[in-house]
Amino acid sequence: MGSPRAIRIPTGRPAEPGPAPVDAATSSGTGERPNHDGTQRAVRSFLLFLALLIAIDAAVLLTFLTSPDEGVRTDLGGYGFFTLAFAAAAVAGSLLTLGRAPRALGRDGRFLLVRPRVGAPLRFPWDAGLSVETLRSYPAGFFSDGPTELVRVAHASGKAAVLLIERGLRPVPPTGEGSAPTTGPA
Question: Residues of the chain whose pLDDT is less than 50?
């Protein structure tokens, strides 16, 4: 009989590799990378939220139409109010979900460039004042084909944004003066 050997038992899954870091050699001149998985998660989350709102609105309409009180069935002003409230909730939901997933993330000279869905690009100075914090990590699954992260990008000047991005697009802040702007796995 031989001597006992130590056996290693892995306790977790290995980290999935993300996309290559954005650098000056990227195909676009600004080194931007599209945010496919972050967009996919945001769109699918919003569509689920919208489907639930439509189902609730249909249930409210059915309740109004089958009410034993004839006044409720003929006067649908209350239903109109609920429909407007659901429409407002849908707009707010789209701003919260789709608004947090930028179209692209990259660099533009000495700036971190975030291209939102609507509006002007956000530019964060690429220096020691830039901080990036991962608020939550999501695995691949129903909502997106690849893993995503909710990150907070902030600068000492006060500018900040919370972004839903695919893993691997997380900006890595520079460590010292003169660092080359890149984004990549943390």
Answer: 19-29, 177-183, 185-186
With respect to residue 136, please indicate whether it lies within any of the assigned structural domains: yes
Q: What is the pLDDT of residues 103-132, one digit of tens each?
A: 999 888 888 889 998 888 889 988 888 889
Domain count of the fold of the chain: 1
Inter-axis angle of helices 36-65 and 77-97, nearest 10: 170
**Residue 8 forms part of a structural domain:** no
Structure tokens at 144: 């997106």
Whether 122 is in a domain gets the answer yes
pLDDT, tens digit, 9 for 90 and up, residues 74-97: 777 888 888 899 999 999 999 989
Give the domain range for residue 139: 30-186
| Beta carbons within 8 Å of 116's beta carbon, 6+ residues apart | 99, 102, 103, 122
> Residue 25 has what pLDDT?
33
Torsion of CA 125, 158, 32, 44, to 10 degrees: 170
Q: Enter the tokens of residue 101.
A: 């997933």
Tell me the pTM: 0.72
- Domain membership flag for residue 91: yes
| Tokens matching residue 73 | 């069935």
Task: Please state, in angstroms and rounded to a whole number, the distance separating the CA atoms of residues 186 and 170.
Answer: 7
What percentage of the chain's residues is helix, strand, coil (to nearest 5)?
A: 30, 25, 45
